């Protein structure tokens, strides 16, 4: 899916498409465009996890960038992660609008000089979080489990720990995959008691809202989030 028009954005995809998302939505790119795209925009996809990055000479053509979530550590030293940090520092210097989601939120923080590490409080759509925001950044949302749910840096950078783009079915698929991989903390020990992990997962899914959130109404476009 792609909207052609005046505004131009790029998704920096830091995760491989899950089988479910690929089958139902055609990939995460379509999920993001469906959630955030507006008429009069064009979107490009760069699979940074596979080493696919925009050319430096093309950065000026974009009005903004969105960094997706990822199962990888934002504080890791893989080549593509270090390259992504360098790209983000360039975008910040160019004052490009950048929205980071989950891993994207964390890698933005790292690139700007903040501190990212393991959560220590168990799974909350991830096991890593921002501990200290960069100098000059402002925390605009927090929770009991995560003191930095959202932060802004100037008027052009926004990080969100959660996943506003996820629909209920995608979230349920994520939970099912976490159970299959024995990845929901603090239930890793439940290989001895697999029913405990399954019951925990079903309890989480049962608490999801019955009605899908109106993502378009809440977040008209990724750049609208930066007008807070």
UniProtKB/TrEMBL annotation:
<feature type="domain" description="Glutamine amidotransferase">
    <location>
        <begin position="56"/>
        <end position="120"/>
    </location>
</feature>
<dbReference type="GO" id="GO:0005829">
    <property type="term" value="C:cytosol"/>
</dbReference>
<keyword id="KW-0315">Glutamine amidotransferase</keyword>
<comment type="similarity">
    <text>Belongs to the peptidase C26 family.</text>
</comment>
<dbReference type="InterPro" id="IPR017926">
    <property type="entry name" value="GATASE"/>
</dbReference>
<dbReference type="InterPro" id="IPR029062">
    <property type="entry name" value="Class_I_gatase-like"/>
</dbReference>
<dbReference type="Pfam" id="PF00117">
    <property type="entry name" value="GATase"/>
</dbReference>
<comment type="pathway">
    <text>Secondary metabolite biosynthesis.</text>
</comment>
<dbReference type="InterPro" id="IPR044992">
    <property type="entry name" value="ChyE-like"/>
</dbReference>
<protein>
    <submittedName>
        <fullName>Glutamine amidotransferase</fullName>
    </submittedName>
</protein>
């Amino acid at each position: 899916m792609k909207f052609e028009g005046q505004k131009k954005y790029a998704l920096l995809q830091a995760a491989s498409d899950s089988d479910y998302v690929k089958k139902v939505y055609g990939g995460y790119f379509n999920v993001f465009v469906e959630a955030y795209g507006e008429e009069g925009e064009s979107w490009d996809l760069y699979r940074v996890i596979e080493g696919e990055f925009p050319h430096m000479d093309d950065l000026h053509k974009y009005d903004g960038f969105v960094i997706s979530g990822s199962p990888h550590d934002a504080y890791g030293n893989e080549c593509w992660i270090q390259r992504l940090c360098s790209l983000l520092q360039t975008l910040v210097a160019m004052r490009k609008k950048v929205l980071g989601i989950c891993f994207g939120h964390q890698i933005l923080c790292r690139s700007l000089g903040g501190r990212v590490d393991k959560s220590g409080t168990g799974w909350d759509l991830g096991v890593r979080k921002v501990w200290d925001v960069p100098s000059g950044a402002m925390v605009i949302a927090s929770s009991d489990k995560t003191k930095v749910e959202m932060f802004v840096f100037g008027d052009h950078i926004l990080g969100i720990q959660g996943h506003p783009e996820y629909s209920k079915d995608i979230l349920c698929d994520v939970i099912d995959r976490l159970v299959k991989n024995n990845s929901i903390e603090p239930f890793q020990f439940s290989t001895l008691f697999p029913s405990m992990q399954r019951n925990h997962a079903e309890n989480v899914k049962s608490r999801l809202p019955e009605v899908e959130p109106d993502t378009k109404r809440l977040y008209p476009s990724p750049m609208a989030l930066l007008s807070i």
